[in-house]
Amino acid sequence: SQQGEEDPQALSIQEGENATMNCSYKTSINNLQWYRQNSGRGLVHLILIRSNEREKHSGRLRVTLDTSKKSSSLLITASRAADTASYFCAWTRSGSARQLTFGSGTQLTVLP
Amino acid sequence: GAGVSQSPRYKVAKRGQDVALRCDPISGHVSLFWYQQALGQGPEFLTYFQNEAQLDKSGLPSDRFFAERPEGSVSTLKIQRTQQEDSAVYLCASSLEEATRNEQFFGPGTRLTVL
């Protein structure tokens, strides 16, 4: 069962607009990562933010992390049709756990 | 190879059959993970290896699921007496060193359909 939530579940925007996806989790974490998954494909790593970081940028991606609220957001600026995919947040829990726990995912559709 | 590879990409099994799914991690990656992804959901952890040692198998749903990595590289996930609820995509991921610090690189997955 999932131990976090992502919202919205689905998001549809026009090309050129920004897309924001939110993730909430329930435990203390070491780091949080965002992945993209195209239909029928594996997961592609996008960005990792450590628990002592608050914001990170990579190209058109901006990730924020608020450990006090146990939440993260992923912003994709100037979206393109090729950004259409499912986006998942995932985290490693504090302590000895090494596996990723995934959120429920956001299905992003960027309309040309 | 350049990334994590998995085979077969698709597997159809009759209920009750045994299946074996293979994962070739990125060369030199110490950590290897198996995840199960049901349709429309995020992946869920099954088991974790550090080299050849299986350090965590808490996510395996039943004793019909067995994983091994005998030489610390290639891994096999075996499912005995498959059931319809086993239908899912099985993802393998590898990570360079201590997995708490490094991102995991995923293979394309094996889509298992149990009829």
Termini separation of chain A (Å)?
Answer: 35 Å
The largest interface is:
A-B, 25 and 28 residues
Structural class by helix and strand composition of chain B: mainly beta
The structural class of chain A is mainly beta
Strand content of chain A: over 45%
Strand-and-helix sequence of chain B, N→C?
EEEEEEEEEEE
The end-to-end distance of chain B, rounded to whole angstroms, is 33 Å
Describe the structure.
The complex is a heterodimer of chains A (112) and B (115). With 112 residues, chain A is an all-beta fold. Chain A is built from no helices and 11 strands. In chain A, 0% of the residues lie in helices and 60% in strands. In chain A, strands 2, 4, 5, 9, 10 and 11 form a 6-stranded mixed sheet that branches. In chain A, strands 1-3-8-7-6 form a 5-stranded antiparallel sheet, with no helix packed on it. Chain A is globular and about 45 Å long. In chain B, a hairpin with a 2-residue loop joins strand 5 and strand 6 (53-56). Chain B has strands at residues 5-7, 10-13, 19-24, 31-37, 44-50, 53-56, 65-68, 75-79, 88-95, 105-106, 110-114. Chain B has 115 residues and is mainly β. In chain B, 0% of the residues lie in helices and 48% in strands. The chains are: A mainly beta (112), B mainly beta (115). Chains A and B meet through strand 4, strand 5, strand 9 and strand 10 of A and strand 4, strand 5 and strand 10 of B.
Summarize the structure.
With 112 residues, chain A is mainly beta. Chain A has no helices and 11 strands.
Write the layout of secondary structure elements.
The complex is a heterodimer of chains A (112) and B (115).
Chain A lengths: L3 E4 L2 E5 L4 E7 L3 E9 L5 E8 L4 E4 L2 E6 L4 E6 L8 E9 L6 E3 L3 E6 L1
Parallel strand pairs in A: 2-11
Antiparallel strand pairs in A: 1-3, 3-8, 4-5, 4-9, 6-7, 7-8, 9-10, 9-11
Chain B lengths: L4 E3 L2 E4 L5 E6 L6 E7 L6 E7 L2 E4 L8 E4 L6 E5 L8 E8 L9 E2 L3 E5 L1
Parallel strand pairs in B: 2-11
Antiparallel strand pairs in B: 1-3, 3-8, 4-5, 4-9, 5-6, 7-8, 9-10, 9-11
